[in-house]
Amino acid sequence: MEGVESRRERLISEVASLPGTLVVTHHPGDLIFQDGAFAAGVYLVAEGLVAVGGYAPRASRAVALAGPGDLVGLEAWRSGPLPRYNGFARALTPTTLLFATADAWARALDRPPFRDLVLSALAELVFDRWTLAVHRDQPERALAWMLVRWGERADGEGQVRLAVPAATLASILGVSRNALRQAVTRLGELDAARSVNGHLVGDLRRLHDLLEESLTASAR
After folding, report:
1. What does the CA dihedral 50, 197, 128, 81 come to, rounded to 10 degrees?
2. Cβ(83)–Cβ(40) below 8 Å
3. Among residues 139, 117, 101, which one has the least CA distance to residue 4?
């Protein structure tokens, strides 16, 4: 059975080969698209991390992450003459995205193998949102899952690094900066993760153990 990482890599390769696909690069902090802009097409993250969010009454708020193999800007698939992005996307790290128009996606989705890859990516997106919601009341477990899901391989065997600003993490988790610090401290006490130069570095084995304990406890 094909693994999740292999499916992501295959989707990236397939989208890169679509006629008219554009390769777009961004520096950390760059705005990829803004709320209300015309949604000309859908992006696929090829490299890097992206924050996706919207606007509260007084400020913007990040609500999710997107990494390699993740789709961003799905509003372009909405029916209607002028679909618009409902929120924003911003690069958190040096980022490479593949951009294809809605028409190009529609033609590609006529091919069942390609459609299956896209449906798998959409299912992952739904699962990502669901998992964050499940762990919302235990920020340390939500952070553990984010490290496993979006962490980049770091120096050292079994180490992952999440290069996301603390303010963005707190926004996605819906907690205060103080609650975020407490969650990081708790992960440190469990030997699962620690803050290094402002970024989280975790031990994959310990992170998986923590998440499995959480699932076992919730099933009781």
Report:
1. -10
2. no
3. 117
d(CA 17, CA 9): 13
Q: List Cα–Cα distances, 103 to 75, 96, 109, in angstroms.
A: 13, 21, 10
Q: pTM of the full predicted structure?
A: 0.90
Interval 112-142: pLDDT, tens: 999 999 999 999 999 998 988 888 889 999 9
Question: What are the E-state strand segments in 67-191?
Answer: 71-72, 88-91, 95-101, 152-153, 159-162
Q: How far is CA 101 from CA 10, 79, 85, 114, 211, in A?
A: 19, 14, 14, 16, 38
The residue type found at 176 is S
